[in-house]
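Much of our argument rests on the idea that a fold can be written as discrete symbols. In the encoding step, the backbone of a single protein was reduced to a row of integers, each denoting a local shape. This step matters because it turns folding into a mapping between discrete strings. For completeness, the protein is quoted in full, as a sequence line and a line of structure tokens:
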Amino acid sequence: MAIHLTKESKVLVQGMTGGEGMKHTRRMLAAGTDVVGGVNPRKAGRTVDFDDRAVPVFGSVADGIRATGADVTVVFVPPAFARSAVVEAADAGIGLAVVITEGIPVHDSVAFTTHARRKGTRVIGPNCPGLITPGQSNAGIIPADITKPGPVGLVSKSGTLTYQLMYELRDIGFSTCVGIGGDPVVGTTHIDCLAAFQDDPDTDLVVLIGEIGGDAEERAAAYIREHVTKPVVAYIAGFTAPEGRTMGHAGAIVSGSSGTARAKKEALEAVGVRVGGTPTETARHVLAVLEAGR
């Protein structure tokens, strides 16, 4: 099994006919994703050839759903159009919207994540790499050839660290890897993924990747204490970051002791989570926990 994305998922790509949309649609198809259509009102009725597959372009998400039964959309539109793209997808009844676009104004993210929640649409992102269930489906920009199916679930704020941990644990493999994005407002949180992985029978261990700024990791620690029985291993990026300075993602700002990597590490360790000092050490913790459980 997996969380949020399986081989049965039917994927639309909003912005498929743009440069990034074309490139990553081709990569998603190569990974086995069932991409059933693109969305571009100006190019409705056309098809786009990707090697041995012709993908139709629809004028709206609603048209794409009616024609194909799509239940996932991946959003590659420019920041100025992201809010309307997600609202359109939610209004059409899509189940999952994966928002890759970065640079979206926070007030737009607040608006579309709130609207999507009311409509029953899960948003992953914005400013995220998407998610992949290895061997089944890939929705976003995560490289599909650096890992394999396996028992580890991964949830991460950072795209780059998602890829690194996938590579570090490539011989073990993953159930699903979810890049939730590091913006101040995201549609899916660490806690959402922890809950889903806890319920997934094919996930034996969860890797949680956080970073400085905000309190998402502290809240995740509180959730783990009350609700998660599976082992969790974590890595927190930003131990050497100077206080009071934004680092990387827009949400990664530290003020005093609030949001520091040390505070997050202490909160997680207090509930039994092993926290690695580097990605490689984090991978070693995962291997040790899995070996101990055999």
